[in-house]
Design a protein that fits this description.
The complex is a heterodimer.
Chain A lengths: L12 H4 E3 H8 L3 H11 L9 H4 L9 E3 H8 L3 H20 L3 H9 L7 H7 L3 H6 L1 H11 L10 H21 L2 E6 L3 E8 L2 E8 L14 H25 L23 H12 L28 H18 L6 E4 L5 H10 L3 E4 L18 E3 L13 E3 L2 H9 L33 H7 L8 H20 L8 H27 L3 H13 L12 H17 L3 H55 L1
Parallel strand pairs in A: 6-7, 6-8, 8-9
Antiparallel strand pairs in A: 1-2, 3-4, 4-5
Chain B lengths: L14 H7 L3 H16 L7 H4 L21 H9 L34 H13 L1 H24 L22 H4 L5 H6 L15 H5 L16 H28 L9 H12 L9 H6 L19 H64 L35 H12 L27 H11 L4
The chains are: A alpha/beta, B mainly alpha.
């Protein structure tokens, strides 16, 4: 018998995809409902490999969905709820048309809500999955928490966003999970680390709400995204609080519940309350201790037993441990012109305490007159009244200190000083073959000494010292001016002595060589025999040979890649070497000039005295 | 009947006396009989079985051997279930007489209608403030009920569920304790949670998985950037802008500039010329002056077919042949020299091929990179290309106090979703305002004629 003819597009890519219209027909939903359920369930349109085939021969570009995705949606119990809602909406419409406004209002009041907690569980089977996808969620929630009630955004949504974001910030404070901060023109970038997952989000600067033009952003869609994200963030908060032994939900002051929105809180007082809430630590579960610090990393012999990597990981862990107690025991006073929210959040994250003007904002914990305050954060050119017991610094000091993971020297950040640039901490560290100027290197690791220490090392130090001096000059109102002066004096003395030494060196032959000769003389003695030691140079040569052999064994498939990699390395190395040389020459030149100038001055002084 | 014997003359003057002395017993008896008949049914029509009973028991002596099974208490109660309850028997009509009045007026129960007295007491109570209190109580109760309802609704926002622990989201599935006993396996399967179904959710698109939700910021967007990083950012912006300008210029070139532009005045002139073609032109004395007389004169002289002579023909042929010969000679010479050039040629060809190959690879790589970075085409409208954020140097004040809003964060989020492929880019369809056709109601129409008429009638001076 003749087999039945196979219809076109009944298998393969043609059967794999479905247009949006077909999906609507299959699910028996309106476009609005379909959009909503797709966002809630995390089902997105697809781009096919071959569009012509996927669209069953139709031209143009249509929005396509996976047939499997749509079949998956068919099982969702919420679809039934959406269909019920449709009936309910019809009732409301009917009541309005009949002018039965009482009835209509009652319907609107009792509008049924959809519970979507199972979708959160379904989309993120494990907690780590949820944490991994928190970037977008947090950014949108922080953004919506600044919105007033809009036409397309449900009123309780922004309230919920406010509550959840503050709760999340509390969790970050309690876990001391903040790692990086970056202040951009867009807003504040924060990066935290929970359970090994890094989460980055943006908090907008605090401006008043800017109305959005209609054709830019579809508010309805964004509100649906936020609807899901609030649900997710709520459960994440719950889990975080319980893992930190905190009571959930934490008791926060008013302004976070939609029930009390009637007593019309203005924007300013709302913001100050939000910040005040951040200054209070949430209640702990009774009878629980502090969450134990993570124990030191145990070393397990793994497959790629790279001691260097292990060492790096250990160092990183130690650094983070230090970072967590960066501001511990330090008291900060925040002046009123400084944006308090990010600063309070950051300072509290690293164990500091902070307060502000209690006459202007609620929630201050100590007064400005408190003598134990270590730092006062100021963002104005000068202050009338200054205390000797504290440093007056600009807010950037806090951000930069967090990013470098140490308390930076304050002299560049003093009141009225021109600030050094605020660098991004998100620059990838993979690019290691880059020229780093010695100043930056010094910033990154404090025990860095310039390589050519015998001759040019002192020069570079000197140069950097001079830089500091230049920056010190404008802050004449320095509170510890005396100390600074003494420091400078000492440095100058040191320089003088070193220069003297160098001058002596020029006169005599190298004393170091003499020393070496002496040692050699000492060692020239008949001694008892020692066991044969491998010659280090010999060994080096052998190693090199072995390396070359291994290079030969690189597969033909990868040989070109390997070659290009090596060539790139060489090129970069050369570039770095060139830049370093340039810098060295430049430094030397400057030093010579300076020396000549000094000599001239000395001569002049001598002449003056002689005359 | 006995009383009829006694005959005595008595007055039966008025109704009372007549009633006293008239014997109506027989009539009453008859009526009573009739009523009894009505109540119990006619005696004659009744079957014998209803009137008579067969006496089987004898007179008063019960036999002992009759075995009656004792009914259990439960059965007794069961049997009584069907009976009409005794307590309500009194409500049933005991007579068989039908209600002669088929439609009765409803009588309101006592107390339902305010009486004069109740009105008085109500007024007194109102003055006392009892009603006010009742109203307030009711209002409070209503409010409490509403709040309770609202709170029940907000349970959703409590998040008191360890979603990734032991707790399972409730109500979406049948509790496992019930599964063993009551619920059939089909129903269990039907109500199983989506995550436990056999049909798994297909994996997400690669763009969604690999592209970061929050991009790593360019170091130049810092509120206080270093000079170099800021310049890099500006360079990026400039390149982006240049690309856009180039595109626009191209579009302009291939569309607008393809067509000749004519000013309005020129167009008018052209039209005039075209329309007046063939019509007698207006007399222009200046034009007529140039013509000497009415003689016709062609602009180009007439073509003459001048034949070449033999010599010229020969010369031309020779010239052509010579040219051809030289060409051939040159080619032959080149052939000989090319033999010596062979290796050079080969190398140049190879080099060219290599270069072209490299170019091809480069182009393919570039195309692939562009495809990797491009937003997926999900709808007919392409998503806008992500533009680097422009931070104008004038905007940078270097302190936190004077940071100005530079980027619309919501829009950036929206575009990020589009770029990752979570949203199909779409054009926002604005609702068109319906054009209303306006017209006058016929009676209210005021035409010019009406105005004239009005003026005429009222003798208004214009």
């Amino acid at each position: 018998m003749v087999s039945k003819k196979k219809k076109k597009y009944s298998s393969g890519e043609g059967a794999q995809f479905m247009t949006r219209k077909a999906a609507l027909k299959k699910l028996q939903l309106s476009l609005k409902d379909f959009r909503r359920i797709c966002i809630l369930k995390g089902i997105y349109p697809r781009e096919p490999r071959n569009r012509k085939r996927a669209q069953k021969g139709a031209g143009g570009i249509k929005t396509l969905y996976h047939t499997k995705d749509i079949k998956f949606l068919l099982h969702e119990p919420i679809i039934w709820k959406l269909r019920e809602l449709k009936v309910y909406q019809q009732k409301i419409r009917r009541a309005r048309a009949q002018r039965e406004y009482g009835k209509m209002r009652k319907f609107l009041r009792d509008y049924p809500e959809i519970n979507i907690d199972h979708i959160v569980k379904e989309r993120y089977p494990t907690f780590v999955d949820a944490l991994r996808d928190l970037d977008d969620c947090l950014t949108l929630c922080f953004l919506f928490s600044t919105f007033p009630s809009l036409k397309k955004v449900p009123r309780d949504q922004s309230f919920l966003c406010r509550r959840l974001t503050v709760e999340f910030m509390h969790a970050v404070i309690a876990a001391k999970a903040l790692r990086k901060v970056f202040v951009s023109v867009k807003g504040f970038y924060y990066q935290v680390e929970f359970e090994g997952q890094t989460i980055t989000w943006i908090v907008p600067h605090h401006f008043s709400f800017q109305p959005q033009s209609k054709d830019e952003v579809d508010f309805k869609i964004m509100a649906t995204f936020v609807e899901f994200y609030t649900m997710m963030l709520g459960f994440v908060n719950f889990k975080l609080y319980h893992s930190l032994n905190l009571v959930y939900p934490p008791k926060l002051p008013i302004g976070f519940s939609s029930e009390k929105d009637k007593d019309l809180i203005d924007e300013q007082s709302y913001v100050s309350e939000r910040i005040a809430a951040m200054n209070i630590s949430p209640a702990k579960i009774e009878g629980s201790n502090e969450v134990e610090e993570l124990p030191e990393i145990d070393i397990f012999p793994t497959e790629d037993n790279d001691p260097q990597k292990l060492e790096e990981a250990k160092l990183e862990a130690e650094k983070i441990k230090k970072l967590k107690t960066l501001f511990k025991g330090l008291k900060f006073y925040i002046n009123r012109e400084v944006p308090r929210e990010p600063l309070v959040f950051i300072i509290r994250c690293f164990g500091g305490e902070c307060s502000w003007d209690k006459d202007h904002f609620v929630g201050a914990t100590f007064d400005e007159t408190d003598e134990t305050i270590a730092y006062q954060i100021v963002d104005r050119p000068s202050m009338d009244k200054q205390y000797l017991s504290r440093y007056y610094i600009q807010p950037q000091w806090v951000f930069d200190s967090v990013n470098t993971r140490t308390l930076l020297p304050i002299n560049k950040y003093l009141i009225g000083a021109i600030l050094p640039p605020h660098l991004s901490p998100f620059v990838d560290t993979i690019k290691d073959q880059v020229y780093i100027p010695p100043e930056e290197r010094e910033l990154n690791d404090p025990n860095f000494k310039p390589l050519n220490a015998d001759s040019s090392g002192s020069e570079i130090e000197e140069a950097s010292d001079e830089d500091k001096e230049e920056q010190n000059e404008p802050d004449s109102e320095d509170s510890d001016a005396e100390r600074a002066i003494t420091k400078q004096y000492q440095q100058e003395v040191d320089e003088d002595s070193s220069q003297d030494e160098e001058e002596n060196d020029d006169d005599d032959l190298d004393p170091e060589k003499k020393k070496l000769a002496k040692e050699k003389k000492k060692s020239m003695r008949v001694t008892t025999g020692v066991t044969h030691k491998e010659h280090p140079y010999q060994k080096e040569i052998e190693d090199k040979q072995a390396f070359r052999l291994r290079e030969k064994l690189v597969r033909k498939k990868h040989r070109n890649l390997y070659k290009s990699m090596k060539a790139g390395q060489e090129k970069r190395k050369k570039e770095i070497w060139l830049l370093r040389k340039k810098r060295r020459l430049h430094d030397e030149k400057i030093k010579d000039e300076k020396k000549a100038e000094k000599r001239k001055q000395k001569m002049q002084a001598l002449e003056a005295t002689s005359i | 009947m006995t009383e009829t014997k006694k005959k005595k003359h008595v007055s039966k003057k008025n109704k009372k006396a007549w009633r006293k002395h008239c014997d109506i017993k027989d009539v009453e008896n008859f009526l009573e009989d009739q009523r009894l008949e009505e109540r119990l049914g006619k005696f004659e029509t009744k079957p014998d079985s209803e009137i008579f009973i067969i006496d089987t028991g004898g007179d008063g002596i019960k036999t002992e051997d009759e075995d009656i099974k004792p009914i259990s208490l439960k059965k007794l109660r069961r049997s009584k279930l069907g009976e009409f309850p005794k307590c309500f028997e009194i409500l049933l009509p005991d007579s068989k007489v039908q209600d002669p009045n088929t439609k009765r007026n409803t009588v309101k129960p006592v107390g339902s209608k305010p009486t004069a007295f109740s009105k008085l007491t109500d007024k007194r109570k109102y003055e006392k403030g009892i009603y006010q209190k009742k109203i307030e109580d009711a209002r409070r109760n209503r409010k409490m009920a509403l709040q309770k309802k609202r709170r029940a609704k907000q349970v959703r926002q409590n998040f008191n569920l360890d979603l990734w622990g032991k707790d399972l989201p409730d109500s979406k599935t049948i509790p496992s304790t019930l599964c063993d006993e009551f619920i059939p396996p089909q129903a269990q399967l039907h109500n199983v949670l989506p995550e436990q179904r056999l049909r798994q959710k297909p994996p997400l698109a690669q763009t969604l998985v690999t592209r970061a939700a929050v991009d790593v910021p360019h170091p130049g967007v810092s509120y206080n950037p270093s000079y170099q990083e800021h310049q890099e950012l500006l360079q990026e912006v400039v390149q982006h802008e240049q690309k856009l300008i180039k595109k626009e210029q191209h579009l302009d070139r291939v569309t607008t500039k393809m067509f000749k532009k004519v000013t309005a005045a020129e167009k008018e002139n052209q039209w005039r010329e075209e329309m007046s073609e063939g019509l007698p032109k207006p007399h222009n004395p200046a034009e007529h002056d140039s013509e000497s007389d009415g003689e016709y004169k062609a602009i180009n002289p007439p073509v003459k077919n001048k034949k070449k002579d033999h010599k010229a023909r020969r010369k031309q042929k020779e010239r052509l042949l010579e040219k051809e010969r030289l060409k051939r000679e040159k080619i032959d010479k080149k052939k000989i020299t090319d033999i010596y050039k062979l290796r050079k040629l080969e190398s140049s060809i190879k080099k060219g091929e290599r270069v072209r190959e490299a170019q091809r690879a480069q182009r393919a790589a570039r195309r692939a990179a562009r495809a990797r970075a491009a937003p997926p085409a999900l709808s007919a409208h392409p998503a806008p290309a992500p533009a680097p954020p422009l931070v104008a140097p004038a905007q940078l004040s270097g302190d936190l106090r004077r940071v100005a809003p530079a980027v619309n964060l919501l829009r950036e989020r929206f575009e990020s979703l589009q770029h990752r492929g979570a949203l199909a880019a779409s054009k926002v369809m604005m609702k068109k305002k319906r054009k209303l056709k306006s017209y006058f109601k016929p009676g209210h129409k005021v035409t010019d004629q009406d105005v004239q008429k009005f003026i005429k009638n009222h003798n208004i001076e214009v």
